[in-house]
Amino acid sequence: MPPTQPSLIPVSIVTGFLGSGKTTLISRILRNPAFRRTAVIVNEFGEVGLDHDLIATSDDSVVTLTTGCLCCAVQTDLARTLIDLSDRRAAGSANYDRVLIETSGLSDPVPILQAMITDQNLAARHLAPAVVTLVDSVFGETTLREHQEARHQIALADRLLISKTDQQTPAEALLARLARLNPNAPRATTAQADPALVFAAPSIAAPSIATPSIATLADRLANIPRPSGHNGIETITLTRDQPLPGLALTLLLQAVAEHCGPRLLRLKGLVAIEEMPGRPTVIHGVRHVVGATAFLDRWPSDDLRTRMVFIAKGVPRHFVTRLLEAIEEEVRDAMTDAPSRFS
Asked: Which terminus of the chain has fewer CB atoms gathered within 10 Å of its CB, N or C?
């Protein structure tokens, strides 16, 4: 993904099931001097679980912490809260460089992602959010087996942080479930992860191995069979070397949103467009909502391939690939026939 633009505020969503360690992680981040200028948004102040000595002042909607960070509750809805905060920032009454949104343990991150994708005011001021999901190494396997909310939190993640490894080494069964639910998300432990990892931009890549910090855990997975999906959730990655006609991408996104609807948990990608050489477009979507595409000034790395990731439930793995093939063929046929229609 592109480097952070000075005019846009990075946003990270920290999610995870009840008891996964979100409060502990956030408290550690806020105590790090490098992250003093952080605004934290939670549903209620009580959910933050911060030590009393962290709180310095309060104006009923925004708490200023002794660390220099801000903490606020969602007063009406998330979009309004983010806009209010950014207005304060522009006026000089709120001093922060990044936003961290903590979800409740039973919540679905989808509405937050949808708001960030569809609200033009939010998109004009904030980068597309990164989703960081915490997984409890003690009870995580049981939680994933019993709670659909936990499985969706894993599937939507851009990166996974495994917590409570000081109490118990993650079981092979848990690591195997994570690999099946979201093979693209890099993994690290909360104890070993640098806080900067929480604010790193979402990556668009082919399925990756675990980060070096838990490479030894990944090695243990080498001989474990990995079915293509779990509970119907599939991660479908499309990678191609040739650019795509802009119209073909538009029709693909429309068709996927229409036919997959709520089964499409998330999509993201970098796409090379024929009409815009050297300027890839960034795509984002959640459920039936697909955000407006945006072009980058340049590719963020030497990898110039198109990469699209679709995380869906109950969608056949071949569906998106075959759909794109059919759409591209039709678009190219129309482009070839167009001149003869006017001769």
From this structure: C
